[in-house]
Amino acid sequence: MSLSITEAVVEGLGDSPVPALPPYSHELDWPEHLAPFKVVDDGTQGDPYAHYEWMRENAPVLRAASATSDVWFISRYEDVRKALRAPKIFSSEVVDPIPLTFLVLFDAPNHTRLRKVVAASFTPKAIAQFEERVLANANQYLDAMIAKGGGDAVEEYAIPLSMSTISALLDVPAADFEKMKFWSDETFSYFGRLARNAPGTGTDEESTMEFFAYLKDTMERLYVEENESVGGHIARMWKEGLLSEKEAKELCAFVFVAGHDTTTILLANAFRVFAENPGLLERVRENPDTIDAFVEELARYRGTVQRVSRITTEDVEVAGTLIPAGSIVRLLPAAANHDSDKYPNGEQFDLDRSSDGHLGFGHGVHSCLGSPLARLETKVTVALLAQRLGRITLDPDRPIDYVRGNNLTNSGPEHLYTILETHHG
Questions:
Q1: N or C: at which end does the chain have fewer Cβ atoms within 10 angstroms?
Q2: Domain map of the chain by residue range?
Q3: Is cis: bond before 109, omega within 30 of 0?
């Protein structure tokens, strides 16, 4: 049974012996089919749910070694949820000074101030006006896949849909998807290297600076046009002195990167879940009122964000293990979402379950700002696949390629090759 996170510094350590640190991940007796869980994925953690299941049962607070420091992984639902609700103990400011104006790196009051800049543009009402555009684009990308009997659901559908949507929201031209995707990936890598001890690409800083310069030029134009997009709003905040130029460029980049990268994986996972559960296409087609439940269960079952970084501001006890002050912690919301103590048979996709309380879009003060947008794109996709397709099959000759490395935050398909058969109804 998991012990609750203490609300105060663990006391009484002065005279009593300091509790022994638990063994490292690589020192534990992992099952033969699982390599020890690592801080930097070596390719064995692309689909990490078997690791998570073992960790929840055997090492709910797992200590792993890295080149720079120990990293602690927390995997059970109740422990992850409570940590997300305790930002004063589990701080987001894992690096000092904070290198980039990315919301995930800030605690209050700066987090509150910066989030407020863009929050009004991500309300369900504000997002709803993009629905027709999302639907038109989604049909266009699916048409092309259907015409050739299938294809890569990531490259040919999920990336262009999520990028065209976030580009429209920011009013940042994305005519050159390949260039924008490259800049976005490089910025993600640069962020990971600065803030997550990730390896980087060798070119990520130079590419990121090019992206920031492009966004600055774009915001100059949006300001002159008195543009009403998110990008125009950020531009006005900058020109009126409420944001510095650095903050404006980096906040704009954060919204762009966060707004498409996570959604890309969620959209691809919709194809995957339909392929793995053949009866679902017909069920959703005949019962369109299940679409909302499908999206929430998808976010629980195969959400994008796998690792949420925190640093402890004091000694804290989790699941009977004492994590020292100043420790780097990775909360694992996707592991928590499979916890059968919270969701019976949590390893199964179940359209009939209540997925209330899932952590697929975060929780607490750092809950996903863009979740209304991600939900809209996913709802449109689920409805469209159910309406137009009779069957989705994963290509048996081309196994799923998984996202790996990068900033160690997201996990899911990098390439998902499908065979599509239309529904003739």
A1: N
A2: 108-306+345-422
A3: yes
